[in-house]
Amino acid sequence: MTNQKESTRTTAVALQQSSRRVGSVLISGSTVFALILLILFFFAMRPDTFLTFVNVRNILYQISILAIIAGAQTIVMVVGDFDLSVGATSSLAGAVTSVLLLQEQGLGVALLAGVAVGLAVGLVNGVLIAYLKMSAFVATLATMTSVVGIAYLVTGGTTVFGMPAEFNQLGQGRFLNIPLPVYFAIGISILIWAGLKYTTVGRRWHAIGGNVEVARLSGVNVRWARLLAFTLAGVISAIGGILLAARLGSAAAEQGADNTLFSVAAVFLGMTVIRSGASNLLGTLVGVAIIGVMSNGLNILGVNAYVQQVVTGLIIIAAVTLSGLKTRER
Amino acid sequence: MRNKFKVAGALVAAAVLALTGCSSSGSGGGGGEDDTFKVIAFTSGNQTPVGAWWVKAVEAKAKELGWELKMVQGDFDFQKMNPAVESAIGQGADVILDGYTDNSSIASIVTAAKDAEIPIFAQDAGTEPTDSFVTNITTNQQQIVDKTLGAISDKIGGLEGKTIMVIGHDPHAGIRERSRLAVEALEKAGAKIAGGEIQQVTNPGVGRTEALNFVADYLAANPNGLDAVWAGWDDAALGAAQALAEGDSAAPVTGVDALSETIAAIEAGGNMLATIEQPWPAVLDMLVKDVEEYRKSGTLPAKDFVAVDVTLVTKENAADITPSDKLG
Question: How far apart are CA B82 and CA B105, in angstroms?
Fold first, then answer.
């Protein structure tokens, strides 16, 4: 009788553990499953269109700039912060580069100036957050507001255009029939991934994101590392903004605005990909792909833009919920 | 201690005198008892090229005509703009000018102006007559649609059986109205609306990118499936034209606004076929004439809604047009 009870209890525990494991696997793989399901769904709906070379290239082209800016957001979120100014920084960098080109400055000078804008905004964010102890939310919200204002001043409130063809080529040119921004996105993503995984500073960022006090007690210069993360995020956002201006052949004060929300969403979506539930570049790219595939697929199916917005919001909620479960599980 | 009381007493007396002075100079509604003609002007669209021009142009007119002008720039933020205008109304004015701010967004301003019996003269502040304004001078939306669709029809050999994408943005009253009219006219002409409905840009700040994606995705799903794109404003039209060029499609695109970038694209002879010039300086002149008439004789404009003619900008006349972003 006792043996029977023991056996029943063991079976129940085993079942419980097994169902927990299944739940855990479902949560772990949910983002990747979601991407696969989305691709299968849209392929089933439009088999003649969705996975054609032209459309896949389309998707890659559409998400390339977001992938770069989401990469910047990933670095900051690895450290446990976030940056609301990435979209505004990208717009300002694109605007400064474009205006300088229109003033007949050389391409190199204009590009460097654009990147310097990102460096400056990132530094300001870093100093405010790491050294003046402002919350990332308040600091980056404030810099975002000012940066948008500066972008309006730089562009004179209008859309600037007419940049030289060699600049536009950066965003519109193709190599092996694939748009150049796709290569830039891949290159920058590899650098960020390698930097986060294999460099000392990358490991320190992870340590700070994991537990800032433990990191500090282990000898990590937390303030310097956070400053570096925000500065690098500013520089990468600026590169994204410059490419966006080249891709559109024009620059306006708020043309990168959407990228802030979508970059945060992509990082949250990506947080469910790895076991630790932390921000990670590969996960972010999966998140970016989900956003891109969904937008492209819904456009192809002719779904109303307002409905698309609702669906995007729901997916973000689902992602945040899943990453919350993941963190709790950890 | 006695000195402190003396200082406090002096401060209270100064404050009372200052407040008395303020209240006697701002009698409200009628704009005061002196001869100064007080005008409150506001626009939510000061961050657009035309809105920015309007601010400067109204300031110049005020200087020229000796108005005491209070300009409120709203930055598309009605929560900020409306109280600022209402507060200015509380200080008293003779006339209110509304530039490019739709009637539906300023109900509290309209109420405050009515209570203070100050007339509102509006420029492009809605597409239908309303009792909110003593006059609203805008452009003829039907004519915009007729001229742009006429250009498309000429280019592609008629509209019947053709697939045309319409790109709109419903929160903007003018774009909403002309997009609706365009769909109506296209369906009447036997054309098919690409995607079955107006493609709505959700964020005009990134309208070009959204329009680019609409067209690129549609072309990916329907290669050579577009005969033309009609866009409610130039920024979206430019995005659509870029997507068509990248997709090796020769489909023409029309916009509205006559931005310098659009005019350059039309002159370059690519997919950008035409745009519409709206004569905003002439509209402002008409509005100022009405205001001056009211100032002199107290006569309000005869019509509460005026829709002026527009000009189709094509390759033929592009060189003669002043772009809307180069007005001021």
Answer: 9
